[in-house]
Amino acid sequence: MRYSPQLDGLRGTAILCVLTGHLFESHFRGAWIGVDIFFVLSGFLITNILIAEQESTGAISLKNFYGRRALRLLPALFIGIAMTGLLSFFGATPFHSVGAFTDAAIPSLFYFSNFSDAQMGTFIHTWSLSVEEQFYLIWPIVVGLVLLTLKPRNRIALIVILMAAFAAIRFDLEAQHIRWWNLYSWFYTRADVLMAGALVACATAAWPQSISSAVRKLKPLLLVAIPFVAYVYYNIFADQRWLYRWGLSAIAVSCALIIVVAQFDTNGLLARILRTKILIWFGKHSYGIYVYHMQIFWMFRHVLPFPQTRMGILIATVAKVATALTLAWASYRWIEKPALGLKDKLFTTKPAAAPLRPAPAAAVVT
């Protein structure tokens, strides 16, 4: 499976959306859309990985899949939780007791913070990690036992049905006036966004010979998709009720379209922009940045405050970002990358003697 630098660039774009939103919420009201980009990317990449494994080995190893995911995700999360726990002893977190810390840390560590009623403090952002982990837990089983037993057209139909079902659940809950944060963070009100990425993966794997012509037809739609995503990023707080009727579905489709064009129109303008070094750097370090930045931003705001002058705000912003990026770089260099190196040693997949069919050109790694 091939590395795709433009998808790292898209990750970089997503994490920059999140950072700018947490730094300047009043200016970038919809910066949460970066998380939706991550969701669609995850659905695309994970489904590609599972399809490629099935094609090369004849089966999907759940042990290998879960082991590789654990090595990718847990080391930085452990460090982030431990760092916050240590800082709590010095009053540098919003957790003023051991009980308050553990009430937030345990749901974060075991990936159910999106369903927790605890005061999550600087772990509030782990709701999205929980959504993704819940997807990782369920989706390989669905793919192995159901999806890959179907013909390509039926795979597409099943994913579309799943997307529609999850969107309908969200629509129904919104009609019942469920609190917006629950609609925003529950797995079954967000799963259709992940399914959008899975739909792209299945379609491009099933008909690789049709990708070029499909991309040519889809590219003009970027003139709608990108401005729509940009409009949401600049203007729309996540508490807007229309998002949970149809808005999140439209965002998912827009992000899926961006992924298709970025991945398969490799010489196009979008792919070239996403392959810039700065975006790739942010993409490679995006997980560490996401895990660590909330605690660092909170600490600078409440423990190490700067004067509320223009110069003070500028210095504080630079200090917060520099600290978060430095920690993420160190984490990637000395924690995440060595852990990634263990994936192939501990959880390898052996090719079958006769692959079921050639691996699709779309296959990429995460």
Enumerate the spans where pLDDT stays under 50 for 5 or more consecutive residues: 353-366
Helix % is over 70%
Write down the overall geometry: globular
What count of domains describes the coordinates? 1
Quote the beta fraction: under 5%
Roughly what is the average pLDDT, rounded to an integer?
Answer: 93
Q: How many angstroms does the end-to-end distance come to?
A: 10 Å
Count the beta strands: 0
Radius of gyration, Cα only, in angstroms? 20 Å
What does the main sheet amount to? none
Query: If helices are DSSP runs of H or I spanning 4 or more residues, what is the number of helices?
Result: 15
Class based on secondary structure composition and strand pairing? mainly alpha
